[in-house]
Model the fold of this input.
Amino acid sequence: MELLKRLYLVSISMGIFLMVAIARNSSADTLVMPRELVDLARTNGCSQISDFFERPGKVSPPYVYGWFPGDPERSVAFWCRKNEQSKVPFKLVFKVADAKQLQGCSATFDWPYARGLSIETRHGLALREFRYISASKRVAPTTVVTSARVIVNEYDGLEDVFYCDGRDWLVSSRE
Done:
């Protein structure tokens, strides 16, 4: 009888352990972006932002396809959380079919805020309102771009507009 009690307790304990392990694995595998991007994030030293949608109101996704003209799946930008501790915890990663499409701009950069991403075409984009991400004291060009495709990082009225000038990334932030 004592042996049966012990076996019963062991089987209940194992069942609880397995349920907890399964629940933990299923929540860890909850995707907030396509698996391909999660895997690409991992190769860039970061991971998906699992709690990205845990905020009120309308939130655009942390990724956007079709930054370049043509097949949308040939260019994508997405946010990921850097694996190492940092004052600037997020990284914007660009994947393109041809590296020449980035025109000399880096395929990643660090940023303090990950908001929802979208693509816009802005007309009459005044670059004097921008600053370089890699060197904020570097003076931005004074030119106006007639028609520019930009990545917009926006949530709750706060907006960052990212633009590649053919050499480096620029940003304009506003509330």
